[in-house]
Amino acid sequence: MEHRLGILRQVRHPAWYYLTAVDVSAEPPAGGAPSALMVFGDSLFDGVGTRPGTDGRFSDKLVERLVASHSPRGMVNASLAGNSLLHDSPCYGPKGTSRFEKELRSRTGVSTVFIHLGGNDIATAAVGDMCMANHRPVTAQELIAGHRRLIRLAHEYGVKAIGVTVLPLMGAVFPFTDDRGERVRQKLNHWIRTSGEYDAVVDADRTLADPGTPTRSRPGYVPEDGLHPNDAGYLAMSSQIDLNIL
């Protein structure tokens, strides 16, 4: 356990205290209205795994690509490390299905949202972990229903919803999972990829999975925790985005 805690301390990233949001107005592009992107999810989008001070998160790298293509957009990072789609937590905040509408309502000009949630729901809670006191096993059908709720809310606000597949969890330091959780992850990812219910899909799973062992992440794309992308992993994820889908 001490070894695992040591690894978690190494990958922990600095927190931004007190500042909860920055809302910036801008001149609209010629012939259109200003629009912004939102990333909504867990530690994947929160940026765990990046080196401090490098602006290496998925959202940062995507904005850099947009600037380089002469089509800059605002970016809102509404992610919480440890957050679940279906479970409230005293440590990781309210479940995604509860907080999503508030984020949509309180952000200006969001036109597209990336959604990555579900990995923490299928994790196996450690004995005595108070942060996961409300945790219980979930089915793929329950997770799919939760994603459908987020898609419906996004569309009610006129926002395009882009689904992001859940990264490999086997072999990760945290969250822990087992064979049952892996089967649930595979079913959820298959639905995200093939159902057509999301307006577009980012297949982070296939981008980061180890080709030889697809249930684990590619070693060069993750730090020692075996899960969260490092700078190279986030760059690979952002590089696969077709900017035309935004």
From TrEMBL:
<dbReference type="InterPro" id="IPR053140">
    <property type="entry name" value="GDSL_Rv0518-like"/>
</dbReference>
<dbReference type="InterPro" id="IPR013830">
    <property type="entry name" value="SGNH_hydro"/>
</dbReference>
<feature type="domain" description="SGNH hydrolase-type esterase">
    <location>
        <begin position="39"/>
        <end position="234"/>
    </location>
</feature>
<dbReference type="Pfam" id="PF13472">
    <property type="entry name" value="Lipase_GDSL_2"/>
</dbReference>
<protein>
    <submittedName>
        <fullName>GDSL-type esterase/lipase family protein</fullName>
    </submittedName>
</protein>
<dbReference type="InterPro" id="IPR036514">
    <property type="entry name" value="SGNH_hydro_sf"/>
</dbReference>
